[in-house]
Design brief:
about 425 residues; six-stranded mixed β-sheet; globular
Length: about 425
């Protein structure tokens, strides 16, 4: 039996999923993050990786043909010539390099994804100013380094992780303007997500009883792995993530880049198993509204009980913009946009109805904006995240989106990475 392993290094912990050739889950594993000092991140990631591998039943490990790993987008590090981390990695949301944006704006094209305080390239510039940078040889993303631990090849990344480094995902090469930075470090060689990089190292194969010819594939980011897991495959299909924040991704034949709204496009690989005739574009944006606002006012149990009493067929007259603090990025770009959560009715059911309807309006406006900028017409929305389980919210959203809304086939990014390993090795 051929099995495939996907590993997800997300914001709350690491997870794994083993699937068979029919994409059915055989086993899953979890490794939650505890309070970890930044300086201990590499050792924590390493321990999580080994723990997940060891937790897979031995009889399944012996049948795994390929492995793919996803990591959080723009979580980066520098390493020496042996792959040992130099200094402390910078996480996906680390914005300490914001002061270097002015330097980048002089050379990077307008609207480029690197023009963000948290981009991989801004973080590379930040690293280059530090004393320890002289010891560094390779610049790697989280998923790159974790893959190296399994295949032993340094300096290889995928074009999903490399987008925020400035890699041109349309021409599939580093742009000429990037050379103007003159940073003395090796940028990773870029391959397609799912491409086989090398067999598993003999040390890991022997220790965990993997087949010696088990292939380690190029990975992806956590959000794209979650998109793979959803089941969306055709232009016009989209995934809304109803987690702490609201994120939308729409599969399109047209690439959209607009830094004003934080919109950028990932190249969506052509996997013959998906039936896509050519590479498509995964166009996305993220709002600051979402589940965190709901949990600010209600417990999970209250949300469940109050939702049952909502009459989803009746429109709410409340017009909110649910934020926990000032500032919005998509579909409105206004760093000073104030939360609008008044008036609050005495009836909690009415209040929750207003919150759910307002977030649904923002979701609909997000998709409208993507289409106004040239993305394919929305045809179906898959839903991931905790909000996917709220039937009343789904009915409310249906009224605004006017397209079918379905639950994702699987909500786990680890499952998406397992699919990537299977698709990549069976192209």
């Amino acid at each position: 039996m051929s099995l495939y392993l996907g590993i997800d290094f997300g914001t709350s912990g690491a997870r794994c999923a083993v699937i068979d050739g029919e994409a059915k889950v055989q086993v899953e594993g979890r490794y939650p993050w505890n309070m970890v000092q930044e300086s201990d991140l590499p050792s924590c990631w390493y321990q999580a990786l080994l723990t997940l591998l060891e937790g897979i039943p031995l009889d399944l490990r012996q049948e795994i043909q390929a492995i793919a790993i996803n990591g959080t987008s723009a979580t980066v590090m520098v390493c020496d010539g042996l792959g040992k981390p130099v200094g402390t990695p910078l996480l996906y949301n680390d914005a300490r390099g914001a002061s270097l944006l002015e330097q980048l704006q002089k050379i990077a094209p307008a609207n480029n994804t690197v023009l963000s305080a948290t981009s991989s390239l801004v973080k590379l510039l930040w690293f280059s100013q530090l004393e320890f940078f002289a010891q560094a040889k390779y610049f790697l993303h989280q998923a790159d380094w974790l893959g190296f631990l399994l295949h032993g090849q340094l300096g290889i990344s995928d074009y999903h992780n490399a987008l925020k480094l400035g890699y041109d995902v349309e021409k599939l090469k580093y742009p000429d303007w990037l050379a103007q930075l003159d940073v003395a470090i090796l940028l990773p060689k870029i391959v397609a997500p799912g491409d086989a990089i090398a067999p598993i190292t003999p040390e890991i194969a022997t220790r965990f009883h993997f087949p010696p010819d088990c292939l380690i594939c190029a990975g992806t980011t956590d959000s794209i792995a979650a998109f793979f897991a959803s089941g969306a495959t055709s232009p016009g299909e989209a995934v809304t993530s109803l987690g702490s924040t609201l994120a939308v991704k729409l599969l399109s034949r047209h690439r959209i880049e607009n830094s004003r709204y934080g919109i950028y496009s990932h190249r969506f690989p052509d996997f013959s198993k998906l039936g896509t005739p050519e590479d498509l574009w995964l166009v996305g944006g993220a709002s600051n509204t979402g589940g965190a606002v709901l949990r600010h006012f209600f417990t999970n149990l209250e949300l469940e009980n109050l939702s049952r009493e909502i009459h989803a067929e009746t429109s709410s007259k409340l017009d909110y913009y649910p934020l926990l603090q000032p500032g919005e990025r998509f579909p409105i770009n206004d760093a000073n946009l104030q939360p609008r959560l008044e008036p609050r009715p005495e009836n909690d059911v009415e209040f929750l109805h207003g919150l759910l309807a307002s977030i649904a309006r923002i979701e609909a406006k997000g998709y409208e904006l993507l289409q106004e900028l040239g993305a394919d017409k929305l045809s179906r929305v898959y839903t991931a995240g905790g909000g996917a389980a709220n039937d009343k919210w789904t009915k409310i959203r249906q009224g605004y989106l006017q397209v079918p809304i379905v639950s994702s086939i699987n909500n786990e990014a680890a499952y998406g990475s397992a699919l990537l390993a299977m698709w990549g090795t069976n192209r």
